[in-house]
C-alpha cells in the first residue's frame, strides 16, 4: 500500500470539540460543528447558550508569528471598544492551539461569537454604522506596525500577476488585460502623495461576509486573516467596490456609499488624496484577490478559475473603470 502526502484535511468536529473541552474553561459540554471551509476552516462551538468560533488555519498558510500579530491587533481593538470578534485564551492563558493534522502542524484560535447575522444588502443606516466602526478601527491603529505583510505595489499588483501567469497563456485575452491594467495601476500608484494618505493596520476584507449586524444595526467585524500594514484607505476602497458589486441600483449604491462615508467622517476625515485613490485601489484589490485565488487554487478547485468567471470578473472591472473614468 502506498502512502501519499495530504494537501488539506478536515478534522472531525466531534473529536475537535472533545479536544477543545480539555483546553478551555467551558461551563457545559461543548457541541462542535463545521461552519465554513475554504483557505481556513471555521467551527461553531456551543457551550450551553454561549457561542464561540474556532478557526483552524490551513497548513503553512500563516506562520505562528503572523497569527500572534493578528491576536495582538484584535486584543488592542477590543480593549479600545472597537466592535470585533476577539481571541479567547485557554485555561493556561495561551491563545494558539497546535494540532498535528495529517498534512502537518496546524494552528487554531478561539474567537468570540459576533452577535447578529450576515446581511448581503445593507440599508443606508447600516452603511453609516459600518463607516463609523471602520473609522474607529483605523483611528486606533493609525501608524501601528504589525509583523505581517505590507500591502503595496509589489504585494497588491506585481506578485498577484505572477500567480495569474501560472494559469493563463501569455497571449490570452485574459493575460493581456491583466498585464496592461497592472502596468497602468503601478504607474498610477507611483503618484501617491504619501503625506496625505494615512498608514497603519488594515483589515483588507471588510464586506458583508466578514461582519455581523444586529437587528438594531450594531456592526461587528471578524476574520482578520488578511490583516496587515498599508494605506488605510484600502479598506474604504474594498468596501466601496463590494457595495458596487452587490447593490445593482445605481441610485441606491450612491446613497449607501454616501452614508458610509458620512459615518466614517464622524470619526476620521478622509483626505482628498485618499478619495482620489479609492477607484484605483479598488481595482488593485480585485487583482490582489485574483492572485490569492490562483495561489490557493486547490482550496476551491475550478469554482473561481474558469472562463465564465473571468468574463464576469473582467466585465465588472471594466464597468467600474468606465464609471470612474479610469485609464481614459
UniProtKB/TrEMBL annotation:
Any Pfam family: APH
Ranges for domain Aminoglycoside phosphotransferase: 39-265
Single Gene Ontology BP annotation: threonine biosynthetic process
Stored InterPro entries: Aminoglycoside_PTrfase, Kinase-like_dom_sf, Pseudomonas-type_ThrB
Keyword annotations from UniProtKB, A to Z: Transferase
Top-level taxonomic group: Bacteria
Keyword Transferase assigned: yes
A molecular function (GO) term: homoserine kinase activity
Sequence similarity: Belongs to the pseudomonas-type ThrB family.
PANTHER family, per database record: AMINOGLYCOSIDE PHOSPHOTRANSFERASE DOMAIN-CONTAINING PROTEIN, AMINOGLYCOSIDE PHOSPHOTRANSFERASE DOMAIN-CONTAINING PROTEIN-RELATED
Protein name, UniProt field: Aminoglycoside phosphotransferase
Organism per entry: Runella aurantiaca
Amino acid at each position: 500500500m502506498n502512502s501519499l502526502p495530504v494537501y488539506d484535511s478536515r478534522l472531525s468536529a466531534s473529536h475537535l470539540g472533545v479536544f477543545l473541552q480539555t483546553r478551555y474553561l467551558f461551563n457545559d459540554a461543548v457541541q462542535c460543528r463545521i461552519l465554513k471551509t475554504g483557505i481556513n476552516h471555521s467551527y461553531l462551538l456551543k457551550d450551553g447558550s454561549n457561542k464561540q468560533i474556532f478557526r483552524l488555519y490551513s497548513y503553512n498558510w500563516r506562520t505562528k508569528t503572523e497569527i500572534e500579530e493578528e491576536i495582538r491587533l484584535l486584543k488592542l481593538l477590543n480593549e479600545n471598544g472597537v466592535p470585533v470578534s476577539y481571541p479567547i485564551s485557554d485555561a493556561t492563558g495561551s491563545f494558539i492551539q497546535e494540532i498535528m493534522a495529517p498534512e502537518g502542524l496546524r494552528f487554531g484560535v478561539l474567537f468570540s461569537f459576533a452577535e447578529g447575522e450576515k446581511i448581503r444588502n445593507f440599508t443606508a443606516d447600516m452603511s453609516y454604522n459600518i463607516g463609523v466602526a471602520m473609522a474607529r478601527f483605523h483611528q486606533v491603529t493609525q501608524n501601528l506596525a504589525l509583523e505581517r505583510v505590507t500591502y503595496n505595489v509589489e504585494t497588491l499588483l506585481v506578485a498577484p500577476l505572477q500567480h495569474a501567469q501560472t494559469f493563463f497563456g501569455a497571449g490570452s485575452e485574459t493575460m493581456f488585460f491583466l498585464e496592461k491594467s497592472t502596468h497602468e495601476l503601478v504607474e498610477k500608484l507611483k503618484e501617491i502623495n504619501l503625506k496625505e494618505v494615512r498608514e497603519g493596520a488594515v483589515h483588507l476584507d471588510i464586506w458583508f461576509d466578514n461582519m455581523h449586524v444586529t437587528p438594531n444595526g450594531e456592526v461587528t467585524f471578524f476574520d482578520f486573516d488578511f490583516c496587515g500594514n498599508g494605506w488605510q484607505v484600502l479598506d474604504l476602497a474594498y468596501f466601496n467596490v463590494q457595495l458596487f458589486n452587490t447593490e445593482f441600483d445605481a441610485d441606491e449604491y450612491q446613497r449607501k456609499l454616501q452614508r458610509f462615508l458620512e459615518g466614517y467622517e464622524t470619526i476620521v476625515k478622509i483626505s482628498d488624496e485618499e478619495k482620489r485613490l479609492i477607484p484605483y485601489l479598488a481595482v488593485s484589490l480585485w487583482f490582489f484577490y485574483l492572485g490569492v485565488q490562483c495561489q490557493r487554487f486547490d482550496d476551491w478547485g475550478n469554482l473561481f478559475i474558469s472562463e465564465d468567471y473571468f468574463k464576469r470578473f473582467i466585465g465588472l472591472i471594466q464597468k467600474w473603470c468606465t464609471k470612474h473614468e479610469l485609464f481614459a
